[in-house]
């Protein structure tokens, strides 16, 4: 089991190295000069050169790449003597760096938290921006996944129990519709129907975040109703998948010999479904839930943008509009690390539950 875990961790590190390389190259070959965008009409040659030097963009691309890797790595190498060095150990940047090995008179090896650079626009650390925005995205994903699990399992079980009925066929049609509907279009449609057309009945807003600012004296207050539409929209696709998986898995389990034996013993249908069939039918559903939760954390960008939900998606879109590359790169890398960690955890759980997985 230990070898299996180490192998999965090494695979995850290689995947992350590939993601970091692709992200760096992609955002450094894009047209446009961040220094000129930051200066606007005040841009002149000397000012542009000064900002590019401060950002490290005056160095060769290879040097920028290795410096980028050095900043992201929890174990990094720096020059702690020469302040004009490209690799200088600046305590204002690496405020949690701990020197644990001196390699030479000027070179040291330090342990630190990954440094994601600073925003071109606000000058704030990217890690602080992500830390502030991610809880809203996490809450939205959890609520959407909870909605999808509870309703999806319930509808899937009923569809299996009443196979070929009107309810079963209707649930299949709606599941196909939910899987085929793009998130961006679904968000616009939900906002238009339930907030614009039926707003007087539902009392839901087309846009809004978890906290709302009232201009008439109440100040900032919690507004839980703003999460309803984005959570339902984000949960539509996993809901459709869970309905299909629960239905097919329940049909397979209900045809097993031990279910017929339970019926022959005189057990009630409720006990057979809840104690025997459903518990054994949920294995593929759990697999889908783990994957969808990870993708929700990464794929809520469109939904957050349409509903103006102040999460990581809005931060990414805003940074793209302003050409704020460090924020975009940091957010993409953060989501990638999150996906890799969740997938590694799921692989380890599978390997623990089923020893056959460890051989693969």
Report on the architecture of this protein:
The protein has a domain at about 125-360: MetI-like fold. Helix 9 (about 230-255) packs across helix 11 and helix 9 (about 230-255) packs antiparallel against helix 12 (about 285-300). The strands form two sheets. It has a three-stranded antiparallel sheet with strand order 1-3-2. Strands 4-5 form a two-stranded antiparallel ribbon. The protein has helices at about 1-30, 35-40, 45-55, 60-70, 125-160, 165-180, 185-195, 200, 230-255, 255-265, 270-280, 285-300, 300-305, 310-320, 325-355; strands at about 75-80, 100, 105-110, 210-215, 220. It is mainly alpha-helical.
- Give a count of the beta strands, DSSP E runs of length 2 or more: 5
Low-confidence stretches: none
Write out the strand line-up for the largest beta sheet, numbering strands in chain order: 1-3-2
Q: Helix count, per DSSP?
A: 15
Structural class of the secondary elements? mainly alpha
CATH third-level topology of one domain: MetI-like fold
């Amino acid at each position: 089991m230990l070898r299996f875990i180490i192998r999965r961790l090494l695979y995850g590190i290689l995947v992350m190295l590939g993601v970091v390389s692709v992200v760096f190259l992609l955002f450094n070959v894009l047209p446009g000069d961040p220094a000129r965008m930051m200066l606007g009409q005040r841009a002149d040659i000397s000012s542009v050169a000064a900002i590019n030097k401060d950002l490290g963009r005056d160095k060769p691309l290879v040097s920028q790449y290795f410096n980028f890797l050095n900043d992201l790595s929890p174990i990094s190498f720096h020059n702690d003597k020469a302040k004009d060095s490209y690799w200088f150990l600046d305590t204002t940047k690496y405020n949690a760096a701990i020197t644990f090995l001196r390699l030479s008179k000027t070179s040291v090896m330090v342990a630190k938290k990954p440094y994601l650079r600073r925003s071109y626009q606000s000058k704030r650390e990217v890690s602080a921006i992500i830390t502030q925005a991610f809880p809203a995205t996490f809450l939205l994903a959890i609520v959407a996944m909870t909605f999808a699990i509870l309703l999806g399992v319930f509808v899937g079980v009923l569809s299996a129990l009443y196979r070929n009925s009107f309810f079963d066929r209707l649930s299949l049609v709606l599941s196909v519709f939910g899987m085929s509907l793009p998130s961006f279009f679904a968000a616009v449609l939900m906002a238009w129907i339930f907030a614009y057309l039926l707003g007087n009945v539902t009392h839901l807003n087309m846009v809004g975040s978890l906290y709302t600012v009232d201009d008439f004296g109440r100040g900032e207050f919690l507004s839980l109703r703003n999460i309803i539409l984005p959570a339902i929209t984000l949960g539509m696709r996993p809901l459709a998948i869970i309905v299909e998986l629960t239905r097919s898995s329940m049909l397979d389990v209900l045809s097993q010999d031990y279910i017929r034996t339970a019926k022959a013993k005189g057990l009630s249908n409720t006990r057979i479904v809840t104690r025997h069939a459903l518990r054994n039918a949920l294995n593929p559903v759990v697999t889908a839930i783990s994957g969808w939760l990870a993708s929700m954390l990464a794929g809520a960008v469109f939904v957050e943008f349409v509903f103006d939900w102040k999460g990581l998606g809005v931060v990414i879109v805003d940074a793209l509009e302003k050409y704020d590359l460090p924020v975009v790169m940091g957010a993409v890398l953060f989501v990638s690390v999150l996906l890799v960690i969740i997938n590694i955890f799921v692989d380890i759980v599978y390997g623990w539950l089923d020893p056959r997985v460890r051989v693969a």
